[in-house]
Amino acid sequence: MRKTALVLLLIFLTVPLSCGKKEVKPVSQDSKTAEEAFALAEHIRDSFMKNDRDALLKDTTESGFKDIFAGGKSYGSVELEFTPRWVEIDQAKVTLNITWKSTWTVSGRHDEDRGMAVFVMEGKPLKLTRVERSNPFNVPGQ
Description:
By secondary structure, the chain is an alpha+beta fold. Helices cover 37% and strands 34% of the residues. Helix 2 runs antiparallel to helix 3 (53-59).
């Protein structure tokens, strides 16, 4: 009986040790690209809220910069919230679907807006080339 208990104890002690190691899988290139796209969208959002055009020029192409400032209307302040919903990665471009919510202060008046935008990004490192659908950077009421 003691030998059987000792054998069972040894089996229970060695089984978890041999199966306890988890294999660490390397991060895929698509995952890295998606993380880069999320970070770029957040950086663009922060730069726009701070009205930092130099940072926006570094993160966008000429057409992407024009899409951001297409409305051209001035504003006092803006709060933007982005929630990434879907990312599609092609060899040459990344499309990032984002739901957004904004609160604008224009001439002492507060306006809220929300929508769904598609950010098209290309290049290495990624840069915003287009904003499709509902543009979160347009002041409401334009």
